[in-house]
Amino acid sequence: MASIITATTTSGLTQSADNSGVLQLASGTGNLVTVPSVTGTAMVSGNMPAFSAYSSTTQTGVASGVFTKVLFDTEEYDTNSNFASSRFTPTVAGYYQVTARTDWSFTSGACFLTIYKNGTGYKGGHLNGATGSGVAPIASALVYCNGSTDYIEIYAYQNNGTNSIFGGIAYTFFQAAMVRTA
Questions:
Q1: Which domains does the chain have, with CATH numbers?
Q2: How far apart are the first and last CA of the chain?
C-alpha cells in the first residue's frame, strides 16, 4: 500500500497513508501518478511523446547522388499523435532520441542516412564501399525540439545507381522518444 493524496469533487483533498514511503497522487476519476524517489525534477511519463513508424513496402525511384526523403507509411505506435506524412513534429519541448534505419541492396558505393531538422541535414550515418548483399545505414542522435515549430524527417542518399529502399518493420524504420523536457 502507498501514501495516496486524492482530489475529489465532494470532499477536496483526502489522504490515506502507510509506511511504504511511496507517494501517489490521484484524481477523483482514478488517474494515478506515482512520484519517484529522486532528487531534482521528476518526469511524468504520460507527457513524453514517442513514436515508431516503418516502410511497409519498397520505396523506388531513389535517385543516385541526391538526398531523398524516406517514406514511412505505417505507424507501429504514436503516443501523442505527433507523426504524420513521414514527419515527426513534437508538441512538447525537450530532448528526443531519434533513430532511423534503411535497407538497400548493393555491393559498392556509398549510402548515407541523415536526420533532417526543419528541412536541413542535422546528424547522420553512412556506409562506404560496402560489400555483401545488403547495406543498412543507421542514424541516431539526441535532438532538441522546441515543441511548436521544429520537425524531424529522414533523408537517404546513394551513389551506386540502386534506386530502391526495402520495406519491412525490421529493415526501414524511424523512431523517436522524449528523453527529458527542456
A1: 3-35 (no CATH), 50-181 (2.60.120.40)
A2: 33
